[in-house]
Amino acid sequence: MNEPVKLPMRIAVGQIWELTDDIAAFTKQMGIRDMQFNFFNGSPDLSGDHRWEYMDLVRLRARVEDAGLRLNAIENVPIKFYDKIMLGLPGRDQQLEDMCTTIRNIGRAGYLFWAITLFQQEFGAHPPPPQPAAAPK
Fold first, then answer.
1. Residue 78: which residues within 8 A CB-CB, separation 6 or more?
2. Rounded to two decimals, what is the model's pTM?
3. In a 10 Å sphere around its CB, with 0-12 CB exposed, 13-18 middle and 19+ buried, how is residue 54 labelled?
4. Is residue 125 in some structural domain?
């Protein structure tokens, strides 16, 4: 059996949606080099309406690197990229094709990590579970 590869832990400034000069300076002041973005609500750097284009992703990575930082990971895409897929609505096949293109572009642009959280509750697909009744006194 192969031994697992042991990687050093890295700390990142995360859950940001835009790299500003202030965020870059703050990150460096803390001695941190890695950035993690969350694009649940979109990104001013990634302008696609239905998918992210390769060159936009390359430019974002270059912008982070030009600031002396590393782009550690991207989390999420805007819900409008996959809402029809989640709900089985007309247009889902095109969304699926666009999501596949986005994922390929993320890899081609040299991103090592991408994560997605499928927000089913945003669509009302799964209502919250009922609360248990109070225990009798």
1. 39, 40, 41, 42
2. 0.78
3. middle
4. no
Neighbouring CB atoms inside 10 A of 52's CB total 26
Distance of CA 29 to the CA centre of its chain: 25
Which residues, other chains included, contact 135 with Cβ-Cβ below 8 Å and sequence gap of 6+?
none
CA 114 to each of CA 24, 127, 133: distance values in angstroms, whole numbers, following the listed order: 21, 27, 40
User: Which residues form the domain of 59?
Assistant: 12-118
Task: Tell me, yes or no, whether 5 lies in a domain.
Answer: no
**Domain-embedded: residue 3:** no
Q: What is the pLDDT of residues 47-90, one digit of tens each?
A: 888 999 999 999 999 999 999 999 988 999 988 898 899 889 99
- The pair of structure tokens assigned to 117 is 């959280």
Please report, for the domain that includes residue 45, its CATH number.
3.20.20.150
Q: H-helix or E-strand containing 34?
A: strand 34-38
Q: Is residue 18 one of the residues assigned to a domain?
A: yes
Task: State the first-to-last Cα distance of the chain, in angstroms, to the nearest integer.
Answer: 56
